[in-house]
Structures are given as structure tokens and as C-alpha cells.
Amino acid sequence: MAVRVNQFAAWKQQGQTVAVLTAWDYMSGQMADQAGADMVLVGDSLAMVALGYDNTLPLTLDEMVHHAKAVRRGVKNALLAVDLPFLSFQIAEAEAMQAAGRLLKEAGAQAIKLEGGYPRMAATIQRLVEAGIPVVGHVGLTPQSVNQVGGFQKQGKSPEAADRILQEAIAIEKAGAFAIVLEHIPAKLARTITETLNITTIGIGAGQFCDAQVLVTADVLGLSDWQPPFAKRYANLRDQGIQAARAFCDEVRSRQFP
Ligand SMILES: Nc1nc(=O)c2c([nH]1)NC[C@@H]1CN(c3ccc(C(=O)N[C@@H](CCC(=O)O)C(=O)O)cc3)CN21
Ligand SMILES: CC(C)C(=O)C(=O)O
Ligand SMILES: [Mg+2]
């Protein structure tokens, strides 16, 4: 049975841990979906893993719509969520509504995710939810703020920083989000947030005490040329791919194939 947003609350109540994977095109969407992921996220990390940029900032809304449409065709069972790209939602609430609207109307997204917390984003989240758009929040390391942070370091290490992230998470829940990504924060803080909130916490580099876990699928498959320290490779498809492609080149040159 296809996953719907209202199942997330039930899963949290039952203590059932949720598996989330990212995707960037038809094939990665199919792989994540057929593996049984509960949610497939078209993350803006695709700017790095699929497009080769150094960070997620260059990705445009048009590009995101294009990728999300491809993923949509491959995802049959999982809930499809899509990241709002940098600056597609911060300028004005009306622009956030329009950007989210395009992802739902043109790409068939069932939820959108946006980075950042209170006080600004809470109002935007509220407007989106009022319009019937399910929202996933995202706090801790928010990669779209890489220029401000100066890198992709762990966030919330001091008691003050930890409390600020907790307050942001509370504001995001109050605004009506149904889930929230906790990225690269101490496990203890992620545990506190998970115990405090009623909505689903989706951890990435945030320890084991979250309601759900997400990794970038390119890292899980071992496809990426680089990965964060908290990612785990379950295969080595990059090396296998290079070997297979090299075998083809060799066989063509030696006239073994065809
Ligand atoms: N392939 C991939 N996997 C990801 O999980 C991912 C992306 N790309 N792109 C978008 C963001 C960026 N993320 C990252 C990227 C790097 C670190 C990392 O290397 N952190 C180091 C410190 C790096 C620094 O000082 O700048 C660490 O030890 O915490 C963490 C998260 C997570 N996301
Ligand atoms: C890793 C997830 C949370 C994400 O935001 C992304 O892939 O862009
Ligand atoms: Mg993202």
C-alpha cells in the first residue's frame, strides 16, 4: 500500500523506525522505491552527487522540477518529498508557495522540505500547510547556509547552540510540519528533540535516537566520489562501474565484443 503522510504519526506512536532514501532521477528513484524505502526525497544534494557542484546553492527550481519529474516516474510506493532549492522560498512567502506549488503540480511531489527554523521559516511553513502542502522541516547542519557556516561541520555542540536548534524544531512542529530532518548534530540533542516533538524526526549524522534515518543514496550505493564521515556504504558501485566500463573498452579494442 502506498505511503501517505498521515502514516508517519502512527509509525512514531508504534515506535516503528522509518527508512528514507534520496533520489535524483528515474533509476535512483526506482532503486530506492523497490528497496522498500518509506519516503524518497529528491534532495538538493543532487546538485553535488548528480551535477558535480561543490555545494547545493547553484541548483535552480527549474532544474529541481526536471529531476523530480524523473524520480516521480520511478517511485510507486514511497512518499515523494522534494527539497526547495536555495532562494526559491526565502524571499517571500508568496514565492515559497509558488515554488512548492510547481513541485506538487508539475512533478507530483507529495511533500516539500525546506531548510531553516524560526522565526522566519515558521510563517512560511504555516502558509504552505494551510494551502494543503505537507512540509518537512530541516535543522542542524543546513547545507544551503554553507557560506555562513564556513563548511559542513557538526552543529549544536555548545549548550546554547543545542537549545537554539531545539527551539527551531519546536517552532517548525508548531507551524504544522509533519516531519523534520536533523542533520549532523550530537546524538544526545537529536534524542531530546525526538522525545520533545510529536512529529517524525529524520536523522542524518544525528545518531540512533531518531524516528527515521536518511542517507544520500549515492553514498549508500558507493557511487559518489566523496561522502560525509557519517555516511555508510552498502556497496561499491562506483568501482564496479568503472571496472565494467573498462572491460567493455578493452573488449572493443581487442575485438572480443561483439
Ligand atoms: N554525497 C553527499 N552526501 C551527503 O550526505 C550530503 C551531500 N552529498 N551534499 C549535501 C549535504 C552536505 N553534507 C555534508 C558534507 C560534508 C560533511 C563533512 O565532511 N563534515 C566534516 C567537516 C567538514 C568541514 O569542516 O567543512 C565533519 O567532520 O563533520 C558533512 C555533511 C551532507 N549532504
Ligand atoms: C540528506 C537530505 C536530508 C537532504 O536534504 C538532501 O539530500 O539534500
Ligand atoms: Mg537537502
Automatic annotation (TrEMBL):
Cellular component per GO, a single term: cytoplasm
Primary enzyme class: transferase
Lineage: Bacteria, Bacillati, Cyanobacteriota, Cyanophyceae, Leptolyngbyales
Record's cofactor remark: Binds 1 Mg(2+) ion per subunit.
Record text on subunit structure and interactions: Homodecamer; pentamer of dimers.
InterPro entries (UniProt xref): Pantoate_hydroxy_MeTrfase, Pyrv/PenolPyrv_kinase-like_dom, Pyrv_kinase-like_dom_sf
Entry cofactors: Mg(2+)
Catalytic activity, EC: 2.1.2.11
The name this protein goes by in its record: 3-methyl-2-oxobutanoate hydroxymethyltransferase
Keyword flag Methyltransferase: yes
Localisation per UniProt entry: Cytoplasm
GO biological process: one example: methylation
Transmembrane feature ranges: none
CDD domains registered for this protein in UniProt: KPHMT-like (cd06557)
Associated pathway: Cofactor biosynthesis; (R)-pantothenate biosynthesis; (R)-pantoate from 3-methyl-2-oxobutanoate: step 1/2
Family as reported in the entry's similarity comment: Belongs to the PanB family.
Active site per UniProt: E183 (proton acceptor)
Job of this protein: Catalyzes the reversible reaction in which hydroxymethyl group from 5,10-methylenetetrahydrofolate is transferred onto alpha-ketoisovalerate to form ketopantoate.
